[in-house]
Amino acid sequence: MAVSGTERGDLTRTAILALLGTVGPLSRTEIARRLELSPASVTQVTRELIGHGMLEELDFAPSRGGRRAQRLGLVGSAGRALGVKVAADHLVLADVRLDGAVLGSWERKFDATAANALDVLAEAVAEVAAEGDAGVPLLGIGIGVPGSVDDLAVGTVHAPALGWRAMPVGEWVRRRARLPVLVENDVNALAAAERLYGRGRIHRDFLVLTIGWGIGAAIVSDGRVYRGARGGAGEFGHFPVDPAGPVCHCGNTGCLEALVGAAGLVAASRARGLPADEIAELSRAAAEGSAPARAVFAEAGRALGRAVAGLVNVVDPEAVVVLGEGTADWEWWDAGFAPAVRSCLLPGLRDVPIEVEAWGDTSWAQGAAALVLATPFDEAGAAGEQGRLVRARLIGGSP
Questions:
Q1: Which partner from 30, 54, 61, 199 sits 20 to 30 angstroms from 230, CA to CA?
Q2: CA angle at residue 337 from 267 to 271, to 5 degrees?
């Protein structure tokens, strides 16, 4: 990404923050080389960013025979974002610093089908936003939803799992909180967090796969989350698997999610005679050594593995990152998943790494916060006017 020295300083500052945010600490010389800027410009702009508390001088880079260069890195306290994960029956909110550290988290009861659902959501956001650290600028609100979003900056949501159709989430919360608001599919939000803080720092083309209540995927291509023409890319859970399978909540028959999502696993456990009414009971039975319970997970793993192999064959990623509440039972999933996925991959793709990451209660909300925190590092400007407002708050302290 070349940045002309004659362009406005705001763009140069944003470019430097973007580079350090996505690849980590670098020396001034390396910054100048990667951005095709003069060393003098980099020195001047980074001095300003250090003065504003957004960058800090770290250790010295290893020497290759010359003078050792000091590296610069982002200061987490330069900004924070509030991330919100919307589920059918609850909200999870997290206050997250620019460097990814979680400052606090909250959970609120929620009924997505209630007539006043958006009022409750907006009120919860405004309440928690007022509780945060006033010494760290609040850059904006990120909201992750289990559905498709037409435009991050507009935030109109279509989510069958919540019973939402054309819900003006972004507009509603923006009006109440009086802050920039970005809304996105929750798995795409996790992919943004991976790009900023996780595997995405070393991979520019990768898949994020989530397992839990449902099944989701996000496609990162050349460092950017692929959203599709209408913001609906990645609805992997609705990949058709079995025409004679159960009816999915989307209205179709035999979707992958209907078979191996939480409801599908519980149904399969009952078919095997297990007294499991919730996924937690099935998980506990597998951990205690129940062969039928482990067989349910292994069978689901085989179906998931075949579907994932098809997706990998299509998009050719560098890696697949597996996330979600279901990873707690990955040992039982993997008994069926590993042989199925490897046997169905094209020969040239059978060495694609599949990496399962640890999962925490606030991970969904942390991913939603990354929608805002990644905005200064967004070369494509996908966040539109809301992204511009976020950048203004970070660089200029604009209210």
A1: 199
A2: 20
- Could you tell me how many residues make up the chain? 399
Contact status, residue 389 vs residue 140, Cβ threshold 8 Å: yes
The type of residue at 279 is I
Q: Which candidate, 98, 137, 144, 105, places its Cα nearest to that of 121?
A: 144
pLDDT at site 399: 46
Angle at which helices 384-395 and 9-23 pack, to 10 degrees? Answer: 90
Q: How far apart, in Å, are the Cα atoms of 148 and each of 83, 132, 162, 211?
A: 17, 29, 11, 17
Predicted pLDDT of residue 66: 58
**Token code pair at residue 181:** 């608001």
Q: How far is it between the farthest Cα atoms of the chain? A: 72
Q: State pLDDT tens for residues 136-184.
A: 889 999 999 999 998 999 999 999 889 999 999 999 999 999 999 999 9
Number of H helices, E strands in the chain: 13, 16
Residues of the chain with pLDDT under 70: 1-11, 14, 18, 22, 61-67, 133-134, 376-381, 395-399
Q: Write b or e for each residue in 111-124: b if 16 or more Cβ atoms lie within 10 A of its Cβ, otherwise e.
A: ebeeeebbebbbeb
Q: Are 335 and 298 in contact (CB under 8 A)?
A: yes
Q: Which residue pairs from 250-255 have beta carbons closer than 8 angstroms and sit at least 24 positions apart in sequence?
A: 250/160, 251/160
Round to whole Å and give the CA distance between 85 and 249. 20
**What gap in Å lies between CA 59 and CA 68, rounded to an integer?**
10
What residue type is 277 in one-letter code?
D
Domains, the chain: 9-74 (1.10.10.10), 79-192+362-395 (3.30.420.40), 204-317+325-356 (3.30.420.40)
| The pLDDT of residue 11 | 61
Three-state SS at 325? helix
Closest CA to 312 of 205, 231, 224: 205
Task: Tell me the pTM.
Answer: 0.83
C-beta separation of 271 from 257 below 8 A:
no
81 HSE (CA, 13 A, CB side): 33
Q: How many angstroms separate the CA atoms of 209 and 293, rounded? A: 23
User: Reading across the β-sheet that carries 55-60, which strands appear in turn?
Assistant: 26-27, 70-74, 55-60
